[in-house]
Amino acid sequence: MRLLALLLAAASLPAIAIAHEGHDHGVAAGVLTANSDGSEPTPGATTGSGDLQFKYNAELSALPEEIAKGILPAHGGFAKAPNGEIYFGLNRTGLIKLSADLRTKTLVSASENLTKGGLHNAAYVDRDGGLLILPDNNKGRVLVVKLDGSEVKTLGVPTFLEGKYAPTDADVAADGLVYICNGYGASKTVFTLDLDALDYGEHKFGGRVPGKGRTKGKFSTNHGVTFDPTDETLVIADRERQWAQKLTTAGEFVEGYDMDRHNPCDVDFVEHNGERLMVAGCLTGPDKGVVQILRDGKVVSTLRPKNDLGLSQFEHIHNAAGVSVNGKLYVLCYGWNPGCYAVLEHVAE
CB of 112 within 8 A of CB of 119? Predict the structure, then answer.
């Protein structure tokens, strides 16, 4: 019934070309996925504040049927390539690619290796023609794949790790190492993957935060990690402590970013109008799932897709990313439980 509601709601949207396993399929009708319960977004609504207000873009939010039908169990995040393309893993569906203009959505691969388990966040590595790092928290593994989804290496539990292994995110730093968060695992540590050796490294830091407060360099759930090339640090979303920590690659605390009582899953950086903004998708908080936009380390705009825009499925935002297309700023939102996807367009100049 939900899929039928999607199809009816999107009958007037433009067609989107799709592909599967490298072969072109026919043109399929777009499917509106922001509200898979069939309800309508609030007409003319905006969210955010000041010069960072956004509206829902229904056209860019439309997904082809073979992707939309798997959106409800979505539990992942975005990997941005240098050419503007964006990748994410969709549980039980496969590897998805978004074009740089956000209009074309392609199911790149639905191989068994990608559809089994639980693809979580994603990271792009600019080497060997482009690689993707896909942590799988369900099976306790990290997948290294090419951009067509073909397997390069699948790594299981590190030999040095004690307790449950459930990696949630990864990113590559200037030193060429991939830093992996064992966010759903027992250790709450961050450790490395050497892409030359295609094996885990010995370097690790972090650990479970003691007590109920914040502890520098320790984590409640180190859910997301993002490399910041401006100072070669790592920004780690410490979800239940409602902040993000900037650390050196050695694990030394640099500074923290408060998320105003919301639980960040990950952060992303985007350049817009000559400034650098931090975008943080937050799972929950006083306003349900929100996207926080930070300027100079402070929250300056809170986007509320559910409360302000009427996107009823956005109870929890699992990931968000800022994207500039021809000078226009967009925020991509990825929801969880229920899974959903939406593109928000900047309206305040």
Answer: no
Tokens found for residue 81: 């390539």
Instruction: Report the C-alpha gap between 226 and 298 in whole angstroms.
Output: 17
Angstrom distances, CA of residue 275 to CA of 5, 85, 87, 236, 346? 41, 21, 24, 21, 15
Dump pLDDT digits (tens) for 1-59: 333 333 333 333 333 333 333 333 323 346 767 787 888 899 999 999 999 999 999 99
- In 3D, which of 63, 41, 67, 36 has the Cα closest to residue 54? 41
* Residue 222 backbone phi and psi in degrees, to 5: -80, 80
- The string of DSSP letters for 184-216 reads TSSS-EEEEEETTTTEEEEEEEE-BPPSSS--T
Length of the chain: 349
pLDDT, tens digit, 9 for 90 and up, residues 76-114: 999 999 999 999 999 999 999 999 999 999 999 999 999
Q: How far apart are alpha carbons 322 and 324 in whole angstroms?
A: 7
